[in-house]
Amino acid sequence: MKVLVIEDDAETASYIRNGLTEEGHCVDVVGDGRNGLIHATTEDYDVLIVDRMLPGLDGLALVKALRAAGRPTPVLYLTSLGGVDDRVKGFEAGGDDYVSKPFSFAELLARVNALGRRSPLKEEETVLRISDLEMDLIRRVVRRAGEVVELQPREFRLLEVLMRNKGKVLTRTMLLERVWDFHFDPKTSVVETHISRLRAKIDKPFQKELIHTVRSAGYSIDDHI
């Protein structure tokens, strides 16, 4: 994979680069947020490793700008801020995973690999369909009525979970566990925010709504409601 490391600590950046290179990955390193954003938006990477505390442009602002520019590259935060609030803010900004400093390289590598590739899927599961909505899990492409719908990685994962459970009501807690790996309630509107974003992309441009709110229960996706 091609990985961009945005880390201002030269020793940490070198450690990550050397380790990932030994594993066969191609690694670029940038030491500040502004140049990191330029690299991330002008070149194609499989995974970004972003330090939360960066000079020039901090990690959260960088990821927000990246998502605003329509770049869906998976982001792994590298941070000494390990609190729940910091994790939530990172996810809400558009990040996909995090590793806390000090970290184990084995864990970092496993998380990078998990973000950069998907496990093999059964043939019958490679494409999910509901009405005129189609999700290609191999190519990671979503189409509605033949039109490509651009989704960020977390939005893609949320839609995948909903589509795999067509017609079933998924509670907020279930979505937090399956999409964000939260096994507790972080008291955040991250689910509601991402559902709203999905509706704006999946439903609003088209005649028929597929994503439904089940009052006092949760959310479902179906073409018969």
Helix and strand pattern: EHEHEHEHEHEEEEHHHEE
What characteristic shape results from the CA principal axes?
globular
Q: Could you describe the largest sheet, including whether it forms a barrel?
A: 5 strands, parallel
Detail the poorly predicted runs.
118-124
**Count of alpha and pi helical runs:** 8
Q: Helix/strand-derived class?
A: alpha/beta
Keywords:
225 residues, alpha/beta, five-stranded parallel beta sheet, 11 strands, globular
Structure notes:
With 225 residues, the chain is of the alpha/beta class. It is 39% helix and 21% strand. It is built from 8 helices and 11 strands. The strands form 3 sheets. The chain has a 5-stranded parallel beta sheet with strand order 2-1-3-4-5, sandwiched between helices. It has a 4-stranded antiparallel beta sheet with strand order 6-7-8-9, with helices on one face. The termini are far apart.
